[in-house]
Each structure stands twice: as structure tokens, then as C-alpha cells.
Amino acid sequence: MAIAGGLFWLFLPERFTFDLPIKFANSITSEEIVSRLTTDNRFTISTFAENTPNARALAITETGDLIVSIPNEGTLKLIYNDANQDNVSDGSKLLLKDLNRPHGIHLHEGWLYIAETDAILRIRYNAKERKFIGTPHYIVRDSFPGGGSHSSRTVKVGPDNKLYVSAGSSCNVCNEETPKRASIMQYDLDGKNEVVYASGLRNTVGFDWQPNTDLLYGVDNGRDMLGDDLPPEELNQITKGAHYGWPYEYGNNVSDNDKKPPGLKTSPSSYNLPAHSAPLSILFLRNNPHLKNTALVALHGSWNRSEKSGYKVVALTFSTDGDITEHDYITGFERDGTVIGRPVDLAEDKQGNIYLSDDYTGRIYKITSIKNNELP
Q: Is-cis flag, bond preceding 376, omega within 30?
């Protein structure tokens, strides 16, 4: 079977290119990695925590600790805040185990919401004592399917006090058996009154609400096997009841096949990102004075492209007239084809410090503003 699979890829047309990152970055020290990273000159970047393999989603507690999801281990880990102010976490501990591929996590009014691949559960959390109150209980179960090509689920509470859950497609291109795939679903905070909020979203792992407008934006991962430069990854302004094209269209309503149902109205993307760059999170900044009206997007990086794309964090600035401009925020995770990190999730604390998870090296980075009197 393995030989047959290898021959299959060998004889594919040239456009079906695979350029997987080779994992050797754990042999590189955190100091060496940080020295290769470049960020906006108003900020510094440092390693906040290490030894968290497959670190994915982040949630910041009221006391400044970080909760990190580790899907491959079925666990959540608590990364302590920097009480002694040496710019490094003061320690860590296992917070919860025996979960079914936990990914999305969100803290809201004393509850921690956890997205497993096929369910949502919640539990009370005491931030000061760094422990749970009671036991976790499921609020959504036997509703949306788990597994498939895109097994991660993201959960967040919106400004309308509703629960939002994204579930990616089960395939590259197909007609799903359930409308709860390739969609974002909406629930009451207790998991009741499920609604398919938006559809046609192949794999929107990252989504967030724009401050001041409360508009929901999500970053969508486009399909594979159309060559190096198609389709673009998408930033979508997501509205209730809208369909965003997959598997029939991509980008600015570009047709991907002739199977679009008659009468189906689809919404174009708000902004396009490079093909196969794999945006996994979007974070609108609320507390950092240097980046107003800006969202950061973590690009995890390509795997089926002859030359790698992504492997960085970009900043999207929204103007008052709706235009979006992009500039690099953190680069250096990939250089000349060599990969030393893969950005995943972003979080911001009350002081405007930004945290970034890297599931390639198992590190958490901290990005801190330089004070005005320290600027060169």
C-alpha cells in the first residue's frame, strides 16, 4: 500500500507539488530561533515557554496565565504568568487530560469552554487558585461530527453572548452529508438552540469579532490540488445565513466546478491571502496602542507548494472606508526553504502583550511593545 501511494504521487502532474517541512527544529535553541525572527520595530519577541509539543489554541486567564490546548495528547496545559518579571513563564502544570482531541478553548464569565473534535464541554475555572471548580460537563454532544480531514474545532463566545463553533470540511472537495461541516454553528451558552450560522467555509479555524463594529471575520483555508497559486486563502466577513462558496467557488466568486446549485447566492471574500499559506487564527487587537484597527493573522505554512508560503504572522489594518492593508508582523520561521517554526494561535493580555503558539517546536512566544523612550 505504501509503495502504491508513493507511485501515485510520483506520477501526478507537476502542479500537485508537495514540500513538507522537515522537523529538526527541536535541535535549535530558543535563542537561535528568536535571533532569526524579525518583527515590527516597535516590538520585541522572546520565548515565553517551551516544552509544550503540539501547542495549539491559547486562552488568557484573569490573572495572566495561559491555557494551551494539546490535541495530540488530549490535554490542556496551564502556563504560569511572569510574576517575577524576567519575561519568561514562571512554570506550568497539567490542567486537564483524557479529552478527545481538544482544540478550541475560550474563557467567559468564569467558564472555560472546550471544543473536542465532536463535542463542546465547559467547566468552572478559578483563575486565582489555578484550578477547576467541579467537573467538566458536555453542553453539545452527538450533534456535529468529528474526525475527517479537518478534525479541529474552534469555540468562542461572541459579543452577543452566543456560543460559536467552527467545523471544517471532511475532505478537500466534496458534497458533505451534513450542513454542520464546512460551517460555523451558533448556540446559546448552555449549548441549546443550535443554528447553522454560516456555510461554505472549507476550514475556518480562526475567527474573531472586530471591536467597535462587532462584525465577525474568519480566515478560511482553501482547497488543495490546484497548483502553487490557487486558490487564495480567504478573509471573510461572516454574516448569519451567508454561504462562502466552498466547494463551488473560491475567492472573489471564482468558479471551481459546474456543480453549484441553481439559485445559491454566495458571498465573495473580503480579502485574499497567499495560496496554501494556511491561516489558522485571527486576533483583533484591543489593548495595544501601536496596532489600532488591526488584526493579526497567523499563517501556519504550506505543505503542497513547490516554494513554501506562510510561516509568519501578518497584520491586517482596516481603514474607515473598509480598505484592508497588509504588512508582515513576524517573519523568519521559514527562510530559503528551511522551517524553524509554524505559528498557530494568538492571544493578547490586558497590557497589550501578544502571545503566539508554535506547534512545530512546542514553544510559546511573547511579543512586547517597546516603550517610546526605548525606540531607536
A: no
